[in-house]
Design a protein that fits this description.
InterPro entries: Beta-barrel_RND_2, RND_pump_MFP. This is RND family efflux transporter, MFP subunit. Pfam families: Beta-barrel_RND_2. Belongs to the membrane fusion protein (MFP) (TC 8.A.1) family. By secondary structure, the chain is mostly beta strands. The chain has 1 helix and 13 strands. Strands 8, 9, 10, 11, 12 and 13 form a 6-stranded antiparallel β-sheet that branches. Strands 3-6-5-4-7 form a 5-stranded antiparallel β-sheet, with no helix packed on it. Strand 11 and strand 12 form a beta hairpin.
Length: about 250
């Protein structure tokens, strides 16, 4: 209606009061839409807690919760993990290298063979990747790590392995049974072995070196390849005593 009281015939006209009310209603609707969108986002974030996502694919090796159990962030207390996930396609082999062999160890990238008790007679290999660059003060050894491909899953995490590495040694170094090395009461600081030469026992002074395995040790002394040594109770055999070497029995005898 125009100021003079007549009705306007022009389409789309609206009074200032109606326009203000329409704007207020629009702003209220926009606020409601924004509030509803915020609630939707909050609901989506909460729904993410309904799904446990792992950072990588693997095998669940331990489950510390059951269906229906109440779980949460721990409320500031240290909480046990829900699951333990393992990717065994590539394993990490850790080896403690004795101090005496640290300077002779392989370089990163070298292939290193090893065996495990679960597969006797089979040899596996890993790649030397990194080393600690420091010695453990407790056991005087350096920790090195190797990556082991395990696509078929035959090797299991936690297995013990025996690493086989041929280290350079001195020309006079010989590997002998640990039981063949002894010390005499009159010279406890001097290690010896008993060599059988021309049918008689001969005491040979040696210096003990690196422990090669549970049964063998490296010694340095006047020994030659092929020398026959007394393996057991060598300290009971006097120097110069006649010795008869027993011939090995045939298989099945």
């Amino acid at each position: 209606m125009d100021p003079d009281g007549s009705v306007s015939e022009e389409r789309g006209t609206i009074s200032p009061n109606d326009l203000e009310q329409a704007r207020a209603a629009m702003q209220a609707d926009q606020a409601n839409v924004q509030a509803a969108y915020s609630e939707l986002q909050a609901s989506r974030e909460l729904s993410n807690y309904l799904v446990v996502r792992a950072p990588f694919g693997g095998i669940i090796t331990a489950r510390n919760v059951s269906v229906g159990a109440l779980v949460g962030p721990g409320a500031g207390q240290p909480a046990a993990p829900l699951f333990s996930l393992e990717n065994s396609r590539t394993l990490r082999l850790e080896v403690a290298v004795p101090e005496a062999a640290v300077g002779q160890w392989l370089q990163p990238g070298a292939r290193v063979p090893f065996t495990v008790a679960a597969f006797p007679g089979q040899t596996f290999s890993g790649t030397f990747r990194r080393n600690a660059s420091r010695l453990s003060p407790e056991v005087r050894s350096e920790l090195v790590e190797m990556e082991v491909p395990n696509a078929d899953g035959r090797l299991k995490a936690g297995m013990y392995a025996q690493v086989l590495v041929a280290l350079p040694t001195a020309a006079d170094a010989r590997a002998v049974p640990i039981s063949a090395v002894f010390t005499a009461p009159d010279a406890p600081q001097q290690a010896r072995v008993v060599r059988v030469q021309q049918g008689r026992a001969q005491w040979v002074p040696v210096r003990k070196g690196q422990l090669l395995s549970r049964d063998s040790v490296l010694v340095f002394g006047a020994l030659q390849p092929g020398d026959e040594l007394v393996r057991e109770q060598a300290d009971q055999v006097p120097d110069g005593q006649p010795v008869t070497v027993a011939k090995p029995r045939p298989a099945g005898a």
